[in-house]
Amino acid sequence: MSFHLTSSDLRVESHDGxxxxxxxxxxxxxxxxxxxxxxxxxxxxxxxxxxxxxxxxTGSARNVSFSIEGGGAVPVLRAELQNAEGHFQxxxxxxxxxxxxxxxxxxxx
Length: 109
Fold this sequence. Notes:
It holds the Pfam family CVNH. This protein is 0% helix and 59% strand. It has 109 residues and is mainly beta. β9 (99-102) and β10 form a beta hairpin.
């Protein structure tokens, strides 16, 4: 299921140098589950760009944010990521490319 269409109160929270996508995901039976997905376990920083199957993007990021954007309701994670030269540049990733709601749990596919 499209996690952003079947969840509510979605936001990014940072704790202990890591970023988490948190909210309430709907299960198949209609009940809700509080969820927390460790984004640093699935996303890295490749020279100033988000990288799927990477790790610890937060360690080289600032101004991390999350929003649902556009007419297609796209769930976008944005941040300024540090590149190899040490400069920060804007980066974004569509989380629905690899994150799904599987019966009330946010799962990386």
